[in-house]
Design a protein that fits this description.
The complex is a heterodimer. By secondary structure, chain A is α+β, with helices and mostly antiparallel strands. Among the domains of chain A are: 188 residues, Aldehyde Oxidoreductase, domain 3 (Alpha-Beta Complex); 156 residues, Aldehyde Oxidoreductase, domain 4 (2-Layer Sandwich), CATH 3.30.365.10; 148 residues, Aldehyde oxidase/xanthine dehydrogenase, molybdopterin binding domain (Aldehyde Oxidoreductase, domain 4), CATH 3.30.365.10. Chain A has 19 helices and 29 strands. Classes of the chains: A alpha+beta, B alpha+beta.
């Protein structure tokens, strides 16, 4: 299981591409994140670490059943408990916070029902907040929960997606007319003809993806602090998109941006869980306004399991057609997915299914594709965008089909992929679903993967071990991942979610640099790469760069962290601001030194003569003169040593990345247990700004993908209550089960930006479930057995083998 | 058994990171809540509150415990060490450095507990190999890293120790 790996080296991938700055010393280099030292000393500042004057704590009484009508809320005993400040119900919160309906104009026909911070007359999933109890301490608030007297009438629960649309299934929202949230059909034409061709070899299978959730180790949490004195709201929030929440608080509470400050300091894991607006977010803000004091909400673990968004829960009938000569000619999928009782605010719950439709078959050259998608309501926790968003499903389905038909044809999986991917010299290209692909490297990545995992040796070993009754499998998955989204993702649909981001760079008087970015930090290393980019763009050492993020009062306006956009969008804004600041520094130096700016360079914290390299002026001296001795400068010249630039990607709807993953597993055919032996990932995120951080994004994302493939599932009882809402029963990957993961890079920079960086945060999660499922099926192939339902548990493997 | 309105308290005396804290605490209060709420030591984190995730791992008289499974009252008269200690041992400092060097943390929420767990490994299992490191940290959940870099960082410190880096720094006997 364990293979010692090399110690980290200062790998420099920057040298493989033309430099983007004059004296590039940081971009492309594996520089450790010095900024996380405080986290190793317990000196972070997570939301629950913050204490404020007058702070109160809220806990929520949540629906214990899947669907109910509330008949009575008796709160006198709870309210009488010493230390309890308020017990508040849905209608009281609704008096200060408007309801919302999460739809997007470009998802034609998507519908949902008005949703309130606390349930009004009905609760529609186990975990929906119903009553808020505010007290001096969290413990007292929890004590008071036990004193609430709430009566309800059980209502029938809609759970199974397969019967959700049946005429005799009750309607969750009768006013909507049915339980259908969204449907989409896509047809290129020619699909039936392709599958009917005389030389067509068809492989068909049904894939099931269980519900899982993000399990951020720090739960969702916030402090809402309404100050009645200046009528301003400050929200400390463990979140990915502070400006989005600022906008939503403005809209739901009739406030202006000048009245709302959202602060996102240390965030203990996010993964998409912390990019949605939850009912309890709004309830906490409403309570702060009503009670005129700060209110802290920190979800406990059972609340996290029942109220954090879930994801996946797809059932996909799928088929592929290839010619006998080995050319893929068509894909067809029919996807049914369940999203809970409401479309999630404000990004909607139609996106994951929509992405499955867009992405299935993505790496390949076929021309014929048909997809049908139905997104249905059910009485389970709402689902929404979680790391990978549709990609793990589309990739697993695509790659299982590709392997399935390759096996029928008797062609090696890598050779079959090499013959069918859109070739590296064919870009820009358009995929069968209509997606625009700027520049990808499937062939290069497949070749690198084959080499780095020593594919032929693995196959030889597999064949030898089979003779001894040891069943190992090698699974390959090629993937595409959408990153650097334009406004096509949300903005065109009417959502007020910024697709642009901004960066402000300020040269301080001592010659150090302060960077303020609208893209924040949740552990990925955004601040670290912004420092690298700023240092190179301006020409200073990285130790002289400080980065500030996560404060709507301080940073430029922007979208934040989602859809693998931080490096590509936020990083580009830093680069552009830095290049302008550098020019402004040179203009200032030209005035001070009475020399032509064109003959000078900024490098290593000083102005140098471009030809001789002579050091002419330290930035500290330039800063001193610019800020404190303006009397010595001509009246016609004002140094502009603070620069803001924004960037939005507008060349393509999305900038796609690609990659290949290889999983090596051993299946115990007596117990059904899977041992993960090793995992290889070849990724192409364009220009790599910090190879170590990209490696770690890949590894963490792969392990999350493996979690979904093998372990993680929100298991519901027949009454719609969650059976495993704790970390002991909901299995997450732990260190001993996980393999070492080897990452290699291919760099195909995007031309849509100067930097050329694409996103790297989600590709690991996109590819791992497909690679692992293919590896297991490869191991099971001598038995003619296959698994196609994730998580792939030992029980499912034994069933496939006919042993139970 | 406690009722919602009746919570007996107890006076405790606990040395936390070298400083004596005298506090009146509810008997039901867990050690990690005591550290965070009564001692102002916010470095130990809560992830699951039932002993599964390891984020609240601290040392009680030199032994690692889950701060959410030990009551504050049980620490009365004892000594607690957390990652916030103002006087980290050479091994703890080496682990902190290695975690940064190898990017063995992303969000950093699990890191305080993880560091206390692996410090115990480095002190008590100096011969641990890579597989044993993975086994040892299997009670500490990390959602960000995929564990590989953590294992690399710990193995690097074990290598340094075997090369004699901490020869002058004896591991304290457990109380």
């Amino acid at each position: 299981m364990n293979h010692p790996t090399e110690l980290p080296t200062r790998r420099d991938l920057g040298a493989e591409l033309p430099a983007v700055t004059e004296d590039q010393r940081h971009i492309g280099v594996a520089i450790p994140r010095e900024g996380v030292r405080r986290l190793t000393q317990g000196r972070g500042q997570f939301v629950d670490d913050i204490e404020l004057p007058r702070l109160a704590h809220v806990v929520f009484w949540r629906s214990p059943v899947a669907h109910m009508r509330i008949t009575r809320i008796g709160r006198s005993a709870a309210a009488a408990l010493p230390g309890v400040i308020a017990v508040v119900t849905g209608p009281e919160i609704a008096a200060v916070c408007k309801p919302w309906v999460a739809t997007l104009a470009h998802l034609a026909g998507i519908k949902s029902a008005p949703q309130y911070p606390l349930a009004m007359e009905r609760a529609t999933w186990q975990g929906e907040p119903v009553v808020a109890v505010v007290a001096e301490t969290r413990a007292i608030a929890e004590d008071a929960l036990a004193l609430l007297e709430i009566d309800w009438e059980d209502l029938p629960a809609v759970l199974d997606t397969r019967t959700a649309l049946d005429p005799d299934t009750p309607l969750i929202h009768p006013e909507l007319g049915d339980n259908l949230c969204f449907e989409r059909k896509l047809d290129t034409g020619g699909v039936d003809e392709a599958f009917a061709r005389a030389d067509a070899v068809v492989f068909e299978e049904t894939y099931v993806f269980g519900r899982h959730t993000g399990v951020t180790l720090e739960p969702r949490c916030q402090i809402a602090d309404w100050n009645p004195g200046d009528e301003r709201l400050t929200v400390h929030h463990s979140f990915q998109a502070p400006h989005m929440m600022q906008d939503l608080y403005c809209r739901q509470f009739d406030l202006q941006e000048s009245q709302v400050r959202v602060l996102c300091r240390d965030v203990g894991g996010s993964f998409g869980i912390k990019v949605h607006a939850y009912p309890d977010d709004f309830a906490t803000v409403a309570l702060s306004i009503l009670l005129r004091r700060p209110v802290k909400f920190v979800a406990d673990r059972i609340e996290s399991f029942t109220s954090d968004i879930h994801a996946r829960e797809h059932r996909i009938q799928a088929r592929i057609a290839a010619t006998k000569s080995g050319e893929i000619i068509a894909f067809e999928i029919d996807d049914l997915t369940g999203i809970g009782p409401y479309s999630m605010f404000p990004r909607t719950s139609g996106i994951e299914g929509n992405q499955v439709v867009n992405l299935t078959g993505g790496p390949y050259r076929h021309k014929h594709y048909r997809a049908a998608l139905k997104v249905v309501f059910q009485n389970k926790t709402p689902t929404c965008q979680y790391r990978g968003v549709g990609h793990p499903i589309a990739c697993a389905v695509t790659e299982a089909l590709v392997d399935g038909v390759a096996m029928k044809l008797g062609i090696d999986p890598i050779a079959f992929r090499l013959a069918n991917v859109i070739p590296d010299d064919a870009y820009p290209a358009t995929g069968a679903s209509g997606i625009k692909l700027e520049v990808l490297s499937h062939e290069a990545c497949l070749r690198e993967a084959r080499q780095v995992c020593d594919y032929e040796a693995l196959r030889r070993e597999q064949s030898e071990l089979r003779k001894r009754g040891v069943f190992r499998g090698i699974g390959v998955a090629a993937l595409i991942e959408l990153t650097n989204p334009s406004a096509a993702f949300y903005g065109v649909g009417g959502a007020r979610i910024a697709s642009q981001d901004g960066a402000t760079l300020r040269l301080e008087p001592s010659g150090v640099l302060t960077v303020m970015s609208s893209v924040g930090e949740q552990g990925q290393g955004a601040e670290a790469i912004f420092a690298q980019i700023a240092a190179d763009a301006v020409g200073v050492a990285i130790v002289h760069v400080r980065v500030i993020t996560g404060d709507t009062d301080a940073t430029p306006y922007g979208g934040g962290t989602w859809a693998s956009r931080g490096a590509g969008i936020g990083g580009e804004a830093v680069l552009r601001a830095g290049l302008v600041l550098r020019a402004n520094i040179l203009a200032t130096a030209a005035v001070i030194l009475q020399r032509e700016a064109g003959g000078m360079r900024v490098m290593r914290g000083a102005i140098h003569d471009a030809d001789s390299g002579e050091r002419l002026l330290d930035l500290a001296e330039l800063g001193r003169i610019a800020y404190f001795r303006s009397d010595t400068l001509p009246k016609t010249f004002t140094p502009e040593l603070m620069v803001t630039r924004h960037y939005a990607q507008r060349d393509y709807p999305f900038i796609f990345t690609n990659g290949v993953q290889v999983s090596h597993v051993e299946v115990d055919t007596d117990t059904g247990f899977v041992r993960l032996l090793k995992h290889w990932a070849v990724e192409d995120c364009g220009r790599v700004i910090n190879p170590m951080l990209v490696d770690e994004q890949m590894r963490g994302a792969i392990v999350q993908g493996i979690g979904g493939a093998l372990f993680e599932e929100c298991l519901y009882d027949t009454d719609g209550t969650l059976r495993n809402g704790n970390m002991a029963d909901y299995l997450v990957p732990m260190a001993a089960e996980m393999p070492d993961i080897v990452v290699s890079h291919v760099q195909s920079p995007t031309k849509s930006s100067l930097l050329g960086a694409k996103g790297a945060g989600e590709a690991g999660t996109a590819g791992a479930p497909g690679a692992v499922m293919n590896a297991i099926n490869d191991a099971l192939s001598p038995f003619g057995a296959r698994v196609s339902s994730q998580p792939i548990t030992p029980e499912k493997i034994l069933r496939a083998l006919g042993k139970i | 058994m406690n009722t919602p309105t009746d919570h007996p308290t107890r006076r405790v005396s606990v040395i936390v990171n070298g400083t004596l804290f005298l506090r009146e605490v509810e008997c039901r209060k867990h050690l990690v809540d005591f550290l965070r709420d009564d001692c102002g030591m916010k470095g130990s984190h809560l992830g699951c509150e039932h002993g599964v995730c390891g984020a609240c791992t601290v040392r009680l008289d030199g032994r690692i415990v889950r701060g959410c499974l030990v009551l504050a009252a049980m620490a009365d008269g004892h000594s607690v060490e957390t990652v916030e200690t103002p006087a980290p041992s050479p091994r703890l400092r080496a682990l902190q450095d290695a975690f940064i060097e190898h990017n063995a943390l992303q969000c950093g929420y699990c890191t305080p507990g993880m560091l206390m767990a692996v410090l115990d490994l480095v002190e008590r299992r100096p011969q641990a190999n890579r597989e044993q490191v993975r086994e040892w940290i299997s009670g500490n959940y990390c959602r960000c890293t995929g564990y590989h870099a953590i294992v690399d960082a710990v193995c690097a410190v074990l290598d340094q120790q075997r090369a004699g880096r901490f020869a002058a720094n004896a591991v304290e006997a457990r109380a």
